[in-house]
Amino acid sequence: MAAGGLSLSALTAAVSERAGGKLAARIEGDAGRRVQSVATLSAATGAQLSFLANPRYRGEALASGAGAIALAPAEAAALRDAARSDAVLVVVDQPYAWFALATQLLHPAAAAATGIDVAAHVAAGALVDGSASVGPGACIGAGARVGAGAVIGAGAVLGAGAVLGDESWLHPNAVVLDHCEIGARCIVHSGAVIGADGFGFAPFEGRWIKIPQVGRVVIEDDVEIGANTTVDRGTMGDTRIERGAKLDNQIQIAHNCVIGAYTVIAGCVGIAGSARIGAHCQIGGAAMIAGHLTIADGCAISPGTLVAASIDQPGQYTGYFPMMPHRDWERSAAIIRQLEELRRRVRELEAAQRRATP
Amino acid sequence: MAAGGLSLSALTAAVSERAGGKLAARIEGDAGRRVQSVATLSAATGAQLSFLANPRYRGEALASGAGAIALAPAEAAALRDAARSDAVLVVVDQPYAWFALATQLLHPAAAAATGIDVAAHVAAGALVDGSASVGPGACIGAGARVGAGAVIGAGAVLGAGAVLGDESWLHPNAVVLDHCEIGARCIVHSGAVIGADGFGFAPFEGRWIKIPQVGRVVIEDDVEIGANTTVDRGTMGDTRIERGAKLDNQIQIAHNCVIGAYTVIAGCVGIAGSARIGAHCQIGGAAMIAGHLTIADGCAISPGTLVAASIDQPGQYTGYFPMMPHRDWERSAAIIRQLEELRRRVRELEAAQRRATP
Amino acid sequence: MAAGGLSLSALTAAVSERAGGKLAARIEGDAGRRVQSVATLSAATGAQLSFLANPRYRGEALASGAGAIALAPAEAAALRDAARSDAVLVVVDQPYAWFALATQLLHPAAAAATGIDVAAHVAAGALVDGSASVGPGACIGAGARVGAGAVIGAGAVLGAGAVLGDESWLHPNAVVLDHCEIGARCIVHSGAVIGADGFGFAPFEGRWIKIPQVGRVVIEDDVEIGANTTVDRGTMGDTRIERGAKLDNQIQIAHNCVIGAYTVIAGCVGIAGSARIGAHCQIGGAAMIAGHLTIADGCAISPGTLVAASIDQPGQYTGYFPMMPHRDWERSAAIIRQLEELRRRVRELEAAQRRATP
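YS: structure for the whole thing
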């Protein structure tokens, strides 16, 4: 961040530039006011920027001590009518996207020390760009390539022949195994494991013969992989995460899956082998997706839902047991065990009724 | 452990001291008998201590070869009546708590070598107390602080500006990222990741703009964090785990959650962003809790339950599908897909009945 | 792999030798054809081996460019009738098991450099076999033992007094904690944590007293443990994974569980404390198994199923909510909350009918 923060006029110009000329904002109030950081509406003070994207927080906006608030035109009008005058209003059609870029400008990632730490372990034959950063304890295998501006944190591992693209980050103790490829501008968080063996065994005489997993993981540009998430290498052929997909923590992606571009997957999701998830999908937390199926572009899967068959139409799909006080659940669960009996009784009543009313 | 173990009289005195004068125990039998370690009722031998807290294991207590058994007064009477005479009985109102402290005394944690291992990597400007222990391969960032008696295991990472309180442990390969704070007497198990980025993106023209996560994780005193559990840093403001909370393995705590004091969370639980869990709650394994909701103090959530809305009354709440033989489940599931149809048929029967009996 | 690959006659002989003289295959076509690697039916080219184990892929086999295809006699006949002539057919009763062994022969694991890397950290008193490989950044504790041909990857940790058996692998950043034992020919994938403390606390005056976990984890021969899977040490006594069991990624095995021989557990499964899973079971992804119960040998648990009570008969057991379009689910869920009311109405209809038809 520029020392002393940025004036709102400078910030709006910089955001618009990052957005390719879009996200133009109109400033209502002192465009020269400087902001230094971001905060929530309730916590923000005069040198801080906040945002209002959901009308239910309008009350918090009215009471906020923020120096500036980004918000949509309709909300700006509402605040103006309420004679709210302390905050400068940054009026923009998509305030949440605008705020995200403004936060990037006000809170740039801490610059990593350029170069290879003396306590890093780089195998002979690895190619590390001179502008990359490799932390202490990090290990880079033979034949690996690390792109310009890439950052490898303490204790992270990049296997033999693996590739980390330009400006991508491996956070501390993340692991990318041999021959896997990570694109540009990706983020792999701590504890994530990219390229462990897929789970493949052939039964033989009561035991299991391991099937070597000879494929790779290929992660395209602009992908984020959460902490302790695992993405297994393909059995034959690759597991692929397409550009712009975002994966939260504690996710399991099995061998030979394809995760479509710009799809977002919340925490604790599991996706079994060879599933193909479309582009622009949203998978809720702890959803579980069976293997060898296809989910169409643009699907939303609710949290906690088990997807056991392909979905070929966009839409929202749900399947979890509704929560109840425990005693109610016990009764509900008992009836569910006897639903067939209940249906039979209804059928008998219907038959009796038909006999009674000829 | 004292060489040769401890006599039961010394052990009961030491437990009571640890319990602040509470947990006074009465010894029935030879108070000078020495015990060296703990074991289950079925495995224990004469130099071992065991416990009986659940009457269903009374038979095992009667058959046990343990040198001493901690148990409640009522159980002691039952054992006495059965002429059980080999074991010394340690009679105490709360035998499980007594046994926990006795185990701590008989099995103290292996002392870690004091000081910084020559193969550890400590950045300039980090403050490591002289009584702390830092293992080989561990990395401590600039400006980090490590308290008295704290232990950082092999390969663990403490980020720049992060704090590890007195007598707290980071087990091997655990990660605490920049500027997060861990209180005193905490335990962070291997593979846990504290302070990775929360999952926050703003949609913009079909892609996702990352919202920098500028908050921290703050973990208060006496908290335990299980292996491979993840606790994300706040977007703005902090994610907080309050004092005395205990988290098992493979848990995901998203950005800006608050976990109340003394709450226990079993393995594989996921808690989405900005959820506030009360104090003294018990969250069962694999429960999933949606974001932006509140759970009252003293709630129990059953395993496998999805909590989709706030809970404002203490109590036990449940919601999982009861298990059945697969064929029964197939029929049950088919009827559940047609529950609305079943209800309609009941309504028609009721209407017909009303017409028939005017 | 032998340079230039292997001829099919050499390959079939080698597979049969690995299988103890079983899996004899008959070659239809040029037994001298050389194959260098494996690929799927759709991707394979002339120097590659593929397989057909499921009749639904027969069309892909007919169109495949593979140099050789392993398949069962019945499928071979079908392909022959279709005048498929390019691929040499390897006809064998169990083509999937044959193919698994053939893949092992064509794709042997990359040989790790024998010896201890100069950047590894081996405590005094650890015994590392001269044929073992220890990577950079790996840490081996005092008194640990590493068997012949074992491989410890970059950044992996083997605790004090722990044992890694002959030809077993710890992949990068895997952790095996103090005094745990891993048998021969095991694979522990990256990020797995073996031997963290079990989750045991005694309640006392509103807080939780930690119960030291003084048992171990014992993993028998030929076990595979997936990436980021956790297996906790026993409270007293051991947690045990019996020979030949295979565990996928992101699994949680709590203290004092026993996982039976040759049981396979898919990703994201959680198993609570002291559960005993039989031999030759198959546990589907994200299934959750409560503690202190027993599952009989040969059970199959469907994905997403919560097992809350013991199972004493082999069979398949299921319990997950079927997925629906969200609007349908909302209606279904509402009725499930009122199932008791629905059953009452059926009872009233039945009573009315009995009154009407004496």
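YS: worth flagging: Chain A touches chain B through 77 residues (CB under 8 Å).
IM: good catch. Also Chain A has three domains: 6-106, 115-317, 326-356.
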